[in-house]
Specification:
This protein is an all-alpha fold. The protein contains 13 helices and no strands.
């Protein structure tokens, strides 16, 4: 074996991580060369690490706001606003579409049709409103930047750690959607996603990590169960809804635990 034999694997990991960043954020990174057929599925393994980066960005904004002597609630809203900007409201949009589809459709076909519609209905508006309100109030309850920043790091990673699990364990709800084109991640990709999510949570929260993992898991499972019951599988919007619910669950749990 030559001395440079690990290079192809390292190059592939780098490409997968860059693709994960491109997929989950609006950062202007460029992909080199054509993508492999399973590239999008492999990239899901790195979603928690990208989520931690999004959380760190929001936490940094919170810290700056606190340094400027803003109260916790305005600082929390600025932090969430920064995260929404960085992700292009990707997950919020998915949660809104799921709320509209599940709330307004009478059958699977109609639910999927509503979810694909770019317009946002009453259920979607309420979903976004509650998501922002719950997360902002939880961050405001945590108050101190030294607590808020680790909380956002952990919640960003944990809330994206379940996406690969959902994609692996459920079939796409439609044959022509983004989720179907993305493909089913391998067991190794799922293991990487869970390992990274847990590692970030432990590094950020230390002894509180165990308290954060359970609500993130239960929240993702609840969204996945509803998706299976309502539309018979997952879509890209379901990933967004799972992320939003899991992040809110983690932040609420940490707020209750710290308080």
């Amino acid at each position: 074996m030559s001395a440079d034999s690990p290079a192809p694997s390292l190059s592939r990991w780098t490409s997968d991580l860059v693709l994960a960043v491109v997929f989950l954020t609006r950062l202007p990174l460029r992909l080199s060369g054509p993508l492999a057929e399973d590239a999008h599925a492999r990239a899901m393994g790195w979603f928690p690490l990208v989520g931690a980066g999004v959380g760190l960005f929001g936490g940094s904004v919170y810290g700056l706001a606190a340094t400027a002597h803003l109260p916790p609630l305005p600082a929390a809203l600025l932090a969430l606003g920064a995260m929404v900007w960085l992700t292009g409201a990707l997950h919020e949009d998915g949660a809104a579409d799921v709320a509209d589809g599940f709330g307004g459709g009478r059958d699977k076909a109609r639910k999927l049709e509503i979810m694909r519609d770019s317009r946002v209905g009453s259920y979607g508006v309420l979903a976004i409103t509650f998501s922002v309100a719950v997360r902002a109030s939880a961050l405001a309850a945590l108050a101190e930047p030294r607590i808020v920043i680790p909380a956002l790091l952990a919640s960003g990673a944990l809330s994206r750690g379940g996406m690969a699990v959902i994609a692996r364990s459920m079939d796409p709800a439609r044959a022509d959607g983004l989720a179907a084109r993305q493909g089913r991640p391998s067991p190794g990709t799922v293991a990487l996603s869970l390992m990274l999510a847990l590692a970030v949570a432990v590094a950020a929260l230390q002894g509180l990590a165990a308290a954060a993992v359970l609500p993130a898991t239960l929240a993702a499972l609840a969204v996945a169960w509803q998706a299976q019951r309502q539309i018979g599988g997952h879509t890209g919007d379901v990933f967004g809804a799972a992320q939003q619910v899991a992040e809110a669950a983690v932040l609420l749990t940490l707020a209750a635990t710290v308080a």
